[in-house]
Amino acid sequence: MYLCPMQPADTRERILTQMFLDIRKNGFQGLRADKVIADMDITKGALYHYFANKQAIGTAVIDEILRPNYLRFYRDLDLWEGHPVDKLQEHLRFLADQATDDDVSLGCPLNNLVQEMSPLDEDFRLRMKAIIDHIHSSVAAALVRGQAARQVRDTVRPDQVAQFVFAGIEGAYSLAKVRRDAAAFKSNMDLLGQFLDTLRT
Length: 201
What we know:
mainly alpha; 0% strand; elongated
């Protein structure tokens, strides 16, 4: 999974982490903030001191948990000076290595929220779109640099490939989720890595 282990340092972070975990399991619409804080032995006053309402919890989860975790690799890719295919394949191997049956059964946190909330909340949709747009731009720009360095074939269309790679990752998460099978995810990451090899000169 994209997400690194979280070690909350203060009450707000503890609350936000638990809200994220509940959203990942039950969806944003299924989030019952009062129940989450009751299980944490935190008062309702403490919750509303940090988050004015449920909407504020959702936007904080997107901006403070999903965005930095999903963009960590792509910000590294933006600075990468080596072969872009090598870096992208390294990321696919990382995702495959992290995958477990329990983890993939919950699906991709970003994709789950995109599917649930994009039709319902325009603010959520735009915040999540900004994350996906950054991912797309990072991969496309890396491939353009690879073409300039004669590492990537001139016939490759960076924008199309960037979109395809992200769709491949998210589609693999969806298949693994419904099958509750990390092996299926790992297999698809391997195949996607093999596709990336075809981009090389």
